[in-house]
Write a structure and sequence with these properties.
The complex is a heterodimer of chains A (414) and B (371).
Chain A: H1 10-25, E1 32-34, H2 41-48, E2 52-54, H3 56-65, H4 69-78, H5 87-97, E3 113-117, H6 123-135, E4 139-142, H7 155-176, H8 182-205, H9 215-221, H10 223-227, H11 232-250, E5 261-266, H12 276-281, E6 285-290, H13 291-294, H14 307-315, H15 328-335, H16 338-346, E7 351-357, H17 361-364, H18 367-376, E8 382-387, H19 397-413
Parallel strand pairs in A: 1-2, 1-3, 3-4, 5-6, 5-7, 7-8
Chain B: H1 3-12, H2 14-24, E1 28-32, H3 39-44, E2 47-51, H4 73-83, E3 90-96, H5 100-112, E4 117-121, H6 130-151, H7 157-180, H8 190-202, H9 205-221, E5 231-236, H10 242-250, E6 254-260, H11 277-285, H12 296-309, E7 314-320, H13 324-339, E8 344-349, H14 355-370
Helix pairs in contact in B: 1-8, 6-11, 7-8, 7-9, 8-10, 10-14, 12-13
Classes of the chains: A alpha/beta (414), B alpha/beta (371).
The complex binds iron/sulfur cluster (2 copies).
């Protein structure tokens, strides 16, 4: 087994600093919204109105990485939040119900409003509804219906979401006491679009051999499009990362030293095992992409001349390429067609790690079919593992390692 | 045979009933998941909509290849039975944006069953704004078009209006039967009520209306039933397992009403007449008291109304293990109901689960309520 230590990106330091700064800034004033990260236009709009935004979902990842989720999930369960609920939600309620003040990064301040978009999972709405009742604060909901058919999203979807965004803007203006100007709206939509361009470019750059970024780099960078969307700072950070990656490619510098296998990962990584990717790196395996980053945020480019329409499409575009208004799970079935074949070929993938995530049905529905397909149609080794993205108690280290050892053997004998 | 005997006979073997009914009918049978789908549109398309639920007593095994164990056991059982050919009388399905499992597997259904007609439908959740209603109406128009393409015939406005009348009548009749359960000595058991609803979900609606009319007239002649030791409200999602109601009955209590996807939630779509029948449907179906459609706060007031109307002694939540929308609402509903002095019990259910622990909990709850 080689050392094969992953090389950290210089730009990652800037991203980490931005993350720390972000968690400091959310304490700096009111009003503060709690929101969801997924392709959420309301977050961009809040920034125009001087409303700060905190993400319990992101914070759950931080808690998991710092091994606090076990404590929080246990507290939540003792308060009737059943173990079958997504661990981000249990983490969040456990955090709120904890009796002590020992929290990662000092915690997140209480919200003045709750704000949600329904494009990722259906749990979002229920979770934030429960938070609204917990805090008794205003609730701004943007319903973005899930597109479950194959054809292009019909106009009436876009019309509906655009009108709903206007309603939400009215509510947010009232709460903040500020106004959204046309100029600001245009600028923010444009910055949001620019970020998308850099993000897609970054993802595509990872087709290079050796891959300049590993899954952990992408997981780190994803903080930018998910949390700093619509800001110049976000654009600058992605620009910086893109320049560094291009440099790496020029020098044929890989994310790991001795790249022998290129894998794709399906599902959310277990945030409490940050060494998960390194374990693969030690076997010469790199992950040039995962469905979590490649197929979710900013997969499509939309015209931004009409900013409200841009934001409507953004809200409807969580997932699939070739049309907006989809879900990740659709992407799993959607990507089963040409999309996956193309990515496997272009990223020179030679194996797949498919995780079944107890918490996230949306990410896990279709995963078994994807695993079968990769094995049968592309004749690539596949390993199925059980993880939960934040609830460490469910992780069976021994069992996962056993499966991975067998998988590494298959890769070597291929 | 009395109407109730007829209903119980059908309920004993729904699959046999459906197979026979479809072989005799000229209509195509379409499976519909959840009460939020306006079946009127299908009925107007000369189709026979049937609510989808798994037939009892089968081992789920084939479905595990496509649906992992954390998905809804109810839907996994349906999919399993589809793969085993037990729904061969169906020509397609309508799978709405609803719970996680159903919503996200709709594409999976298409992927595996290329010849099935699979329609989907978006949900209008939480914000019931004017825009939302227009969107819902447009989405029903979309569903209508898909059905027209599938059947090869146009759905006329008169057909829609007629379908709305038939379905309104069905809800009215079922509502009248439910009202009888408000009596101190209900003429029916909770098991009977469950069977009445389940049969209404599979039978042709016009035929069902005739049967329910007969049932209602027969019930008027019946002597009052026994006074139950405890009157319970059962709340939960796709509660398709009659054993829960049997257990309650065996313990001397009666489930006088069921706030479930198979029960009262199916009655909430009573449509007011409108020049635009699709808008009328959108208006009524947008407010169904399903957890994926409305806030826990609204569910609470709905439940409190039921507690009053049916004079219940306690609410028992019987929730499918993987049904996240339901379990998300539970902590709030439990806390608030208790605050109002309503005893609350909880049982976790799965398709064909072991009834021993469920039975112990139900019996324990009934005892505590009776004290
Ligand atoms: S269920 Fe999945 S998409 Fe939803 S909050 Fe949990 S991890 Fe995120
Ligand atoms: S029980 Fe819940 S999760 Fe299962 S099919 Fe019904 S609504 Fe969906």
């Amino acid at each position: 087994m080689s050392e094969n230590k992953p090389k950290r990106l210089e730009s990652a330091k800037a991203v980490s600093a931005a993350l720390r700064q972000y968690y400091e800034d959310i304490w700096a004033g009111h009003p503060l919204a709690w929101s969801v990260v997924s392709s959420n236009p309301l977050n961009d709009i809040c920034r125009m109105l001087g409303i700060r935004v905190a993400y319990p979902e992101n914070y759950a990842c931080v808690c998991a990485a710092q091994h606090f989720s076990e404590k929080y999930c246990t507290i939540a369960e003792a308060n009737n939040y059943k173990p079958e609920l997504c661990s981000y939600i249990r983490n969040n309620f456990g955090y709120l119900l904890a009796q002590d003040n020992d929290h990662p990064l000092g915690g997140i301040p209480k919200p003045d409003l709750l704000m949600v978009v329904s494009n990722a999972c259906l749990n979002y709405l229920k979770w934030f509804d429960a938070l609204r009742l917990f805090f008794d604060k205003p609730y701004v909901v943007l319903n973005t219906p899930h597109r479950m058919f194959d054809y292009e999203v019909p106009d009436y979807y876009i019309r509906y979401v655009a009108r709903e965004i206007e309603e939400c803007i009215g509510q947010l203006e009232k709460i903040s006491g500020n106004k959204v100007t046309d100029q600001k709206l245009k600028e923010t939509a444009h910055l949001s679009r620019e970020q998308g361009k850099y993000w897609r470019e970054l993802l595509d750059l990872n087709k290079a051999v050796p891959a300049p970024m590993n899954l952990s780099d992408l997981a780190n960078l994803i903080f930018v499009p998910s949390s700093l969307s619509g800001t110049q700072h976000g654009v600058d950070l992605l620009k910086l990362a893109t320049a560094e990656i291009k440099e790496r490619i020029k020098k044929r510098e890989g994310a790991i030293q001795d790249e022998r296998h290129r894998l794709v990962m399906f599902n959310i990584p277990p945030w409490y095992r940050l060494g998960f990717v390194n374990y693969f790196a030690q076997r010469g395996c790199v992950f040039p992409f995962g469905d979590y980053n490649r197929y979710l945020w900013y997969t499509q480019d939309f015209e931004d001349t009409d900013p409200i329409e841009y934001f409507a499409k953004k809200g409807l575009s969580f997932g699939l390429d070739g049309g907006c208004g989809s879900t990740i799970a659709e992407t799993l079935y959607g990507c089963i067609g040409d999309r996956l074949a193309r990515d496997i070929k272009e990223f020179k993938i030679d194996g797949a790690v498919v995780a079944i995530n107890k918490s996230c049905k949306i990410m896990s529905t279709g995963a078994l079919d994807v695993a079968n397909l990769i094995h049968e149609r592309f004749h690539l080794p596949v390993v199925l593992i059980d993880v939960d993205q934040a609830d460490e108690r469910t992780y069976a280290e021994g069992q996962v390692q056993q499966r991975l050892e067998a998988f590494f053997e298959m890769l070597e004998n291929k | 045979m009395t109407a109730m005997e007829h209903i119980n006979q059908i309920a004993r073997d729904m699959r046999a009933y459906l197979s026979e009914a479809s072989s005799k009918s000229e209509k195509k049978f379409i499976g519909v998941m959840h009460p939020i789908v306006p079946q009127e549109v299908l009925f107007a398309a000369c189709l026979h909509p049937v609510r989808l639920f798994p037939f009892p007593g089968e081992q789920t095994n084939m479905a595990h290849a496509h649906l992992h164990v954390y998905t809804s056991s109810i839907f996994r059982a349906i999919w399993d039975q589809v793969l085993k050919g037990q729904f061969s009388f169906l020509d397609g399905v309508v799978l709405p944006e609803s719970c996680e499992t159903v919503t996200y597997f709709s594409r999976g259904w298409r992927y595996h069953r290329k010849n099935d007609f699979v329609a989907t439908m978006a949900g209008v959740r939480f914000n019931k704004t004017k825009n939302a209603l227009i969107f819902f109406r447009d989405d029903l128009e979309n569903l209508k078009k898909e059905l027209e393409e599938f059947t090869g015939r146009e759905i006329f406005e008169e057909a829609l209006t007629y379908a709305i009348d038939v379905y309104n009548r069905n809800r009215e009749l079922l509502g009248n039967i439910c009202n009888l359960m408000k009596q101190e000595r209900p003429p029916l058991t909770g098991v009977d009520l469950f069977n009445i609803f389940m049969v209404s979900h599979v039978m042709d609606k016009e035929e069902n209306n005739r049967l329910l009319e007969k049932l209602l007239s027969e019930l008027l002649d019946l002597p009052a039933g026994e006074r139950p030791k405890a009157r319970l409200l059962v709340s939960g999602p796709c509660l398709v397992d009659g054993r829960i109601y049997e257990t309650i009955q065996a313990a001397g209590a009666t489930a006088v009403c069921a706030d479930t996807n198979m029960g009262l939630r199916s009655l909430a779509g009573q449509s007011e007449s409108d020049n635009d029948p699709l808008l009328a449907l959108a208006r009524s179906y947008a407010n169904l008291p399903c957890p994926f459609s409305i806030s826990a706060e609204h569910r609470l007031s709905y439940l409190l109304d039921l507690v009053q109307e049916y004079a219940v002694d306690g609410v028992i939540f019987a929730i499918e293990r993987a049904c996240e929308a339901e379990i998300m609402d539970f902590p709030y509903l439990e806390r608030e109901l208790r605050k109002k002095g309503v005893p609350v019990g909880f049982v976790e259910t799965e398709y064909m689960c072991d009834m021993a622990p469920v039975q112990t909990r139900i019996e324990g709850f009934i005892e505590s309520v009776m004290k």
